[in-house]
Predict the 3D structure of the following.
Amino acid sequence: MIELDDYLRGVRDSAREASADLRSRALAIDADPDAMEAHFDSPVFATIRESDTPAEFRESASGFSRPPDAGGCLETVVAFTETACGDAATAFACPGPGLAGVMVRLLGDAAQQEVFFRRLHGGRTWPFFAMTEAAHGSDAGAMDTRFEPDGAGGWLLFGSKRYIGNAARGGIGVVFGRTGRSALSIRAALVELPAPGWSGVRLETVGLRGAYLSELTFEGVPVPGEMMLGEHLPVAQRGLWGALKTFNQVRLHVAAAAIGTALAMVEYVGEHRKSAPGLDVAVARAEAGRQALYAAAARLDRNPERAYWSSAVKVTAVEMAIQTGRWAARVMGPGGLLEHPLLEKWTRDVCAFEFMDGTSNMQRLHVQRGYQTGDADA
């Protein structure tokens, strides 16, 4: 069992306090994810944005003091589990650095980081992280999107992406594509909008509407040469290497979203059906998921390139959350979800986690490979 120190307990408690604000906005954003003006100036949104921003690029110099050895994946999942217990979709709707910020910190030089993080100031610009394609999912090796030289030191972007959070309303983000056919030719570029040749539309989804999942099309989008990420790094540590390290973390972020939503559902059922059959078991499963998540995050902080534990926890967390949603719908009785729209929303949202950062079948393949290569015992 992972015991949180004083600092991490403070992180957890602060996120827990903020979760009530997110929950109060959840149904409005689910009903109309385009109507965000009423939410932009939320102090909680500002806190999420600033806490994910490197100290040198924050709008405020106060309120985010960390010990020298703090940070990392464990801190992130401790906070995001509580945030998701408020409402995961509302957190995804917040214009904060998110996945793109992780990638820019890994692969961006000082000037690129400056461009990216300064653009997010004011809390009205969404970033995006565009890798998944309609024909190939998140299989980076089969990617079709490409960068072609423009003859003047820059690039032209062609192709399409699908299921990209906040992309149709985004202002800056990271797009993956090929400069050739080898694995080392898969690169990431920082793209600022508006730009010619770029188009995006929001996809209609049943759940997780606040994430504003989108489809993008690129028809010769100009990308300046200085916006190609990782040029200052060795060739082997550019696009795909950064993506794999990012995904190892992101799987645990998705697991935290699933576990936080499961905790929210059992808490809600406990408040409204105190004698609900199976309540103790549902609580125990969600808490066990939280402990497994913490353990996996601590392992990832020690070795960021090992994927086994992040994949294993993502699979089990998502399955547990979906089962918790089905249990909640059952014990609330006929018409229960109509009477409790927030709970109904969560039962829709948890199904979306299955498809974020690779489906469970893909994660099981990662688990198998990790077990065979000894990652499970590392």
